[in-house]
Design brief:
The chain has 205 residues and is α+β, with helices and mostly antiparallel strands. The chain is 20% helix and 41% strand.
């Protein structure tokens, strides 16, 4: 989500100035003490005047956020889902290759009936999990030709693995006529990098 603020936080008998941040699945605080509050442990998040009051499984934390309190409360109560971050639109033409994440596939099926486990022409989005860095360039070149002009390829790889890293994916893009535009945490174990055709090279539909 990317919201950040310097604020004072009270939690139990502790109180400190520090940095608060909203991640995609957690509310974090680092100051005289540290807090990590997963969204799935939050019972309620309410803006009370200039304070954000968060009730969760570990207790109650109060964030002095001033005029931003209401905005943070809404972001916690209605977090942006994975498909929204990935740009999957209802009815979009999506190809999924080498990804067996049941939760992700279920979300895709609920949002769009036009999902395939093979490469298809005129795809709005392609999700691909390569097995090695050696196959990046030849496969991305093929996948590029399957996109709509404004479409994108999400390359998905395991976090913390030396045999395939974000830098490897980025480096191949210019070789095959693609530019990287966005990185996301796809899941606890996977990262994703979105690649698109440069605007100057896109043909008309």
């Amino acid at each position: 989500m990317g919201l950040e603020a310097r604020c004072r936080v009270r939690f139990g008998n502790r109180e400190s100035e520090g940095d608060a941040r909203l991640e995609s699945t957690d509310l974090l605080f680092r100051g005289g003490f540290r807090l990590r509050i997963p969204f799935d442990q939050i019972g309620s998040a309410e803006a009370r005047g200039r304070r954000l009051e968060v009730h969760f499984s570990g207790g109650v934390a109060v964030f002095e956020l001033g005029g931003q309190a209401a905005k943070w409360a809404l972001k916690i109560r209605y977090p942006r889902g994975l498909l929204d971050k990935l740009g999957v639109k209802p009815g979009g033409r999506v190809s999924v290759l080498g990804i067996d994440d049941g939760d992700f596939l279920g979300q895709l099926a609920a949002r769009s009936a036009d999902v395939s486990r093979r490469t298809r022409k005129a795809s709005d989005l392609v999700f691909w999990a390569p097995r090695s860095r050696e196959e990046l360039a030849p496969r991305l070149k093929i996948l590029r030709s399957s996109l709509k002009p404004g479409g994108g390829i999400w390359v998905i790889w395991p976090k913390g693995r030396k045999e395939l890293r974000e830098d490897d994916v980025r480096a191949v893009g210019p070789q095959v006529g693609l530019v990287d535009v966005k990185v996301v945490s796809f899941s606890d174990a996977l990262s994703g990098l979105k690649m698109v055709i440069p605007v100057a090279q896109r043909r008309r539909d």
